[in-house]
Amino acid sequence: MAKIVVDVMLKPEILDPQGKAVAAALPRLGFTFATDVRQGKRFEIEVDGDPTPAQLADVEKAAEKLLSNPVIENFTVRVEK
Amino acid sequence: MKIGVVTFPGTLDDRDAARAVRHAGGESVALWHNDADLHGVDAVILPGGFSYGDYLRCGAISRFSPVMEPIIKAAQGGMPLLGICNGFQVLAEAHLIPGALTRNHELHFLCRDQKLTIENTNTAWTSSFTQGQEILIPLKNGEGAYMCDDETLAMLEGEGRIIARYVGENPNGSRNLIAGITNERGNIVGLMPHPEHAIDSLTGPSADGLGFFTSVLKALVK
What we know:
The complex is a heterodimer of chains A (81) and B (222). Chain A has 81 residues and is of the alpha+beta class. Chain A is built from two helices and three strands; from the N terminus they run βαβαβ.
């Protein structure tokens, strides 16, 4: 069954204190690869069968209205098999 | 004058808000999140707390509660509406005021008495104060950093829509030390600190918060 995945991230210009805290914790554990970390949210939405274009359009609307706050966040919608 | 105080699941400060209304000389009316009727109130307060456990984003679920529909309609028509802390977050999620509240820049939950300056005394909720008056009321939040884009910030500053600013060090990372803002008309106010916890010296650090509640009663008499 296919899954609709919505990823929500704070806009680049919005300070992300949680991501910063993670970025600061990594080197303490010996992981020195990260120059920056941003933390976001992922929604996995299940529908019956393959998502139709109409369903995907509705998910876009829902992502804009509820799953994200367009004032501070961006989102992407994709289908995962 | 009847002031409605909304209780969402997870609201904490509804009783103090109702007490503040009574202390100021108004009649408080309890409004339930699932009731789409405002029971004839003249103004509404969205109190602080953790409505819906702050799930998704603070205020994001409450904003779609049945009671919010008539509140939004009435407020757009000029009814005084005050959102305190979580209520401020609900106002932002409902896009009744610009911007958004995000996590404190230091990540810590803050709980302390905070000095503010009142910067706009022309709103329904701030007319009892004097311009530039310094007040001391509790501040307690985890997501109280006021964020907006540069254009919105310039507009808020230019139109005098910042009603209160933090004094001293920035407690939570809010842009331009913003503690509270108003809409264009001045009937809707969002405020991060808690005036309802500072209405007498027995229970609060001061009685400075009472001015918000006496202001709206004056506004309603006019």
